[in-house]
Amino acid sequence: MHWKRFCLVSLSLAWMAFPERARSQDVTSTPGFSSGYATLDNMSGAMSLSPGGGSYLLFNKQTGKAVGIPNGYSRIGVRHAFFEDGPNQVFGEAHFLVTDNTRYGLNTGVGYRTMIDGAVWGVNGWYDSLQSPQGFNYQQGTAGFEYLSDTFDFRANGYIPFGQRQNFLKVLNPGTTPIFVGHDFSTLGTALFQQALAGWDAEAGVPMPVINWLRMYAGVYYLTFKGDETWGVRSRIVGQVTQGVNVMFQVTNDQQFGTNLNIGVDIRFDGRLPTRFGGPRDAYARRYDPVYRQWQIQLGSGKGDYAVPLINPATGEKIQVTWVNNTSAGGGNGTYEHPYNLLPTSPDSDYVLVKRGVGDTVGNIVLHNGQSLFGEGTQHFINTDRLGLTAIPDAYFDNTGGVPTLRAGNPAAPVVTLPRSGCTPR
């Protein structure tokens, strides 16, 4: 864990708590504020830190790996109450997140809370982004519900990733079955993929007997990606050590991520020292508590099919194939899925494979050294690095039957122009 980063941020917050150090602004005497509070009211358009209120700076540190989280992280941000009318409150939060392996994330959200029968009821919504340890970027939307009272708490959150949710990590088995994908001649292998997991979690909690500054929580969580599901259980203890400092100890367990132990600390700075002891702990005092949820996008891994390109031994590069089928619609790009319907003039590939089609295939093609032009209806072979001389599978290119006929698009030029050496028209 990066305790150096933790200590630096903690010291910065402590330094900010002393108004005599804040030389960029004057310490003013504001009605209703006792001496020692740092105010930002003299800065036009700026947010005001509100002692005992809904606007404050927040620092959070969590240690160790957790469910879908490969390592610890530090989070620093700001909470601001945009609107308050009696028991009703609309607030926003924005956090910058740094993982222990120096990857970055962002959380921005808004929420609404109100007091009903002495309890806090609230809803919130978020946009999250995260850079994974491998450098992939993920996004998700999050929605939450909360009920906070003197004797009972309940929270539930839903996580919905969007955009690119899966990225290739590594090949597990290259396979031996030849396939064509795009311009590549490959084998059907197995690979490991990183996946952004969707899911939800819920927990309930009560204060501990006698020690009312400790609360115990127990809950469940569910994560999924394309049918692969993970169910788990979570328990945690949260202690309000001082009015501005909370400490958490958490245990989780499931079949995919195993058992994980985490320690977390939250430090809130509202213009006063966060190390003040005492103060109310009833539901009304908790209406400005930070939202609790999983702040990192939760990542898993899974196996899947993967086309592993074969290499041309003569060039050391991937084997590239241009496909032609005169029954295809116009606008093709020469891939297996979208072949050309005319002979390409000068294809940049190792092989040109012409399907039988219907009638003549029209065009003029110029072959270069090392290129091969194959027509359907005959067994052909491609030389590869891993499989040696490999027959083109009949499922992709008929080995028997009629052959394609070629006709010049420009009658004044040859249908096929050969280099002096090193090409194979068949």
Topology, please?
Elements (H helix, E strand, L loop, with lengths): L2 H14 L39 E7 L10 E13 L2 E12 L4 E13 L2 E13 L5 E12 L4 E10 L3 E8 L4 E4 L2 E13 L1 E10 L6 E12 L2 E15 L2 E10 L3 E12 L29 E11 L11 E4 L26 E4 L5 E3 L2 E2 L5 E4 L5 E3 L5 E3 L13 E3 L8 E2 L6 E2 L1
Parallel strand pairs: 17-18, 18-21, 19-24, 20-25, 21-26
Antiparallel strand pairs: 1-2, 1-15, 2-3, 3-4, 4-5, 5-6, 6-7, 7-11, 8-10, 9-10, 10-16, 11-12, 12-13, 13-14, 14-15, 22-23
- What percentage of the residues does DSSP assign to strands (E)? over 45%
Write down the secondary-structure element order.
Answer: HEEEEEEEEEEEEEEEEEEEEEEEEEE
- Structural class given helices, strands, pairing? mainly beta
Instruction: Kindly state the percentage of residues in helix.
Output: under 10%
Number of helices: 1
Number of strands: 26
Biggest sheet strand line-up: 1-2-3-4-5-6-7-11-12-13-14-15
Largest sheet: 12 strands, antiparallel, barrel
Shape: elongated
* Average pLDDT, all residues: 86
Query: Rounded to an integer, what's the Rg over CA atoms?
Result: 32 Å
What are the low-pLDDT stretches, counting only 5+ consecutive residues below 50? 1-47
Instruction: State the separation between the terminal residues, measured CA to CA.
Output: 63 Å
